[in-house]
Amino acid sequence: MTSIRPILRTGFIALFFSLGVSLTAGCQQTVPSDGRPSPSAVLSSTSATRVLPSATPLPAPSHTPIQTAFRATLTLTPVLPAPLPTQPDEQVYTDPEGWFALSLPVDWLPGDAPGSFFGKNGFLDVRFLPDLGFMTNILNVSAWQANIEFPEPENTTIWLDGSVTVDAGDGGKIQHLLFENPGAGYAHRFVRLTVDESHAEMVRSSFRWLSPAESLPRGARPPFHQMTLRPEDAALWSAAAPMPEGIAVTETVLTAPGQQVFPGSKPLTDLLPQDAAERRKDMIHTSGTRRLHTDELLAQFGYRLEQPPGGPQSLYKGDELLFDNVYRVDRAAVFPTESGEMLVFAVQTVGGETGNPDFRDYTVQGGEISERRSLFNDPAYPPVMVNGEVLWVRVDGTHVLVETSGQDILFDFSTYFGANVPLRQFKSWNDHWILEIADFIIQDGEIINEKYDFQETFDWHPLNGKPFFFFRKGKRVGIFYNGGILPIYYHDVIRGFG
């Protein structure tokens, strides 16, 4: 059995992996209780065609995923307040274990399954989500439900309160309301209430936690490190691979100010001791060549943007006008082909009257111009080429899409839209495409979280030509490298340090 290196300190550290590649993350460590040529045609079609994803098989997991129901290790004694006030046409349902209460129509009757109710004009199904109780936040739970548990992610909408709406196909909608009790153990941290659309507001507005247990600040996570390691997680770590030869992990404790800084508010280099900061700068400096800006790539292939004083931009190739009223030109990339290098980029134009703009989207691929449907929130990630085909990542409302230049949709991931969509990266590697959204990694249309039964996955990078990423499984965050789990773990890895 491979020994797992114990964690010795409390606080924040930075990780450095050798091989000339810098992968850093703030990691919270706590003493445990258990020891990521010219245009030839303008195509007028702007509709998208959906194609079922064809996932590239990944190495089989080194363990057999175990899905079991389990109880929280924190014992909480529910405290029941007075019943919720009701209207004459409502009744109060109280969870048998005393965790919550809610209102539902007075004429609804219990179903055969525990927590189910039905009436002539609606239904309700109540269930806790113990297998997802270790997730970082409620929106990750929503994304798991929408993209892994529910059969058609393209028919789902995730809202910022964590609820998920599913189009039922008959013009109706089903609401999956999620509620979080951060003071509960993982078995009771999240509860899902599935209800028909017409009764969703009654259930949502009447829901009350009856047993908040020890109060935690809003957004705080339970003290997972104090919980007992679950049997299925112990089985996973017992199968961890030895540390591969040639890989060294250096842990550096952040400075005292760095222990208190919110991730993302300062560059990580500013929070490291001087020697570690210099080492990180050297690793970044030698990690690769600079990506050329879109303007530089356009100039290399004979394109140029011109803008008269006070007027709109125009795009030319040589002396030929390709577009006027250009709003933006971006997402440029160069790919090798049998006939030489091929430049691919996106163009968005804007016309129409003031107050009623008409945006149009185009791709330019090897000189051929194609119009596609306009999606104003498209991310700035350039396209990738996989098996000779150019692929784009696009954002349509709350859905992240991977599609071809011909608008065939290869993958659809339902997510949420706050200040922006939580899209972390889109890249190619060894003729595979990699997409990272919030705490989910997708390779060639296959969600890695589901593949390996990891609640969360993040920070995917190639390290020495092999895939590397962090994952959460139960109370621990581990490292997955080259198809195996390394014998090192943390209780949390803080995202957002730059």
Please give a structural write-up.
The chain is mostly beta strands and about 500 residues long. It has a domain at about 90-225: 3-Layer(aba) Sandwich (Protein Transport Mog1p, Chain A), CATH 3.40.1000. The chain has helices at about 140-150, 200-205, 230-240, 275-285, 295-300, 450; strands spanning about 10-15, 25-30, 40-45, 50, 90-95, 100-105, 110, 115-120, 120-130, 155-160, 165, 175-180, 190-195, 210, 250-255, 305, 315, 320-335, 340-355, 355-365, 370, 385, 390-395, 400-405, 410-415, 425-430, 430-435, 440-445, 445, 455-465, 465-475, 475-480, 485-490, 490-495. About 30% of the residues are buried. The model is unreliable at about 1-10, about 20-45, about 50-80 and about 285-290 (pLDDT under 50).
What layout of secondary structure does this protein have?
Elements: E1 11-17, E2 26-29, E3 42-43, E4 49-50, E5 90-94, E6 100-105, E7 109-110, E8 116-119, E9 122-128, H1 138-149, E10 156-158, E11 164-167, E12 173-180, E13 190-196, H2 200-206, E14 208-209, H3 231-238, E15 249-253, H4 274-285, H5 294-300, E16 303-306, E17 313-317, E18 320-337, E19 340-353, E20 356-365, E21 368-372, E22 384-386, E23 389-396, E24 399-404, E25 408-414, E26 423-429, E27 432-437, E28 440-443, E29 446-447, H6 448-452, E30 456-463, E31 466-473, E32 476-481, E33 484-490, E34 492-494
Parallel strand pairs: 3-21, 4-25
Antiparallel strand pairs: 1-2, 1-15, 2-34, 5-6, 6-14, 7-8, 8-9, 9-13, 10-11, 11-12, 12-13, 16-17, 17-18, 18-19, 19-20, 20-21, 22-23, 23-24, 24-25, 26-27, 27-28, 28-29, 30-31, 31-32, 32-33
